[in-house]
Amino acid sequence: MSCNCDYVVPNKESLAPHYDNCRLMWDELHPGIPCPKNADGTIMLPNKHLAGLDVDILYHLGLDTKTYDLPAMFGDVKFVCMGGTKVRMREFAEYMREVLDLPNKGQKLVNLTKHSQRYAMYKVGPVLSVSHGIGIPSMTTVLQEVIKLMSYAKAKDPIFFRIGTSGGLSIPAGSVVVSSFGLNGNLEQTYDIPILGKTRKLPALPDQRVYQEVHSLGSADDGFGTYIGGTMGADDFYRGQGRLDGPFCDYTEADKMAFLRSLTGMGVRNIEMEAPAFSAYTREAGIRACIVCITFLDRLQGDQVTPSKATLTEWQRRPMLVVGRYIAQYFKK
């Protein structure tokens, strides 16, 4: 079996030699699991029950396989970019329209999920920009439907990004973190999901070569630091992240600081609420994926997000710049 990597950044010693979903590497990284990617790069959904459906209703996207011509609508998508808020993902779509010099600049974008009202999804050329809400349950709901959407649309080898906000660890506020692994609240690099009464542990590992490529495109002229490191995905914003400012707190400040320092010692550079599940589900689907987050504060210095709204707005554009540069690089090669 030969390598089928369509490299975004040319090979060099600092980069892994293959993407994790390379057919040459799949059996080594996923022993005993068939590759969920067809020879032409389209996604092969492993759920055999789907074949028995006359129509698959993607309820939260307001789409289905009968009413809509999904290959015509989405077959050219190469990048799926997801983030928490509807506003952020509309702004990202508008930004990518400028970066890729696409037509109809300034024209109002259409929310393609308008019939469901739960999320927002915008398409600009080969980029799909989707909001996922806050936390793992909200994110995985739309992520799984978007994975099915890409399969039904016959999109070839799409690359997924999560563009998010987070709290940093021992790095300056306003820094960007490119995740090298997801860590759950029990400090394991897995996404733990109860299925039929039993907990399944799925490896929470983004594509190594992709996060290395993204980091390699950083520039000293950016005006901010870009770091590679682990990302803890908590199931709760307050106690789950060791905060002292929630309505409940049953530990001391010393306990909190010891916990945060232990995370730093493990190579964790930021904390958010989606990384383990996003990494695990894209990996299971054989999809290249990467998480790029801005840090609003250094959690070792406090818990409250204190910068001004103008500063936070400017900072939120930084992951967009990093991801946009990678997408632009793909279309330059």
Write structural notes for this entry.
The chain has 333 residues and is of the alpha/beta class. It folds into two domains: 47-156, Nucleoside phosphorylase domain (Rossmann fold); 164-333, Rossmann fold (3-Layer(aba) Sandwich). The protein contains eight helices and twelve strands. Strands 6-11-10-7-12 form a five-stranded mixed beta barrel, surrounded by four helices. A two-stranded antiparallel sheet has the order 1-2. Helix 6 (253-265) links the parallel strand 10 (226-233) and strand 11. Helix 3 crosses helix 8 (309-332) and helix 4 packs parallel to helix 7. It is globular, with a radius of gyration of 19 Å. The chain starts with 22 loop residues before the first helix and ends with a helix. The model has no long low-confidence stretch (mean pLDDT 96). One of its GO terms (molecular function) is uridine phosphorylase activity. Phosphate binds at residues 118, 162-165. Pfam families: PNP_UDP_1 (PF01048). This is SFRICE_022059. One of its GO terms (biological process) is uridine catabolic process.
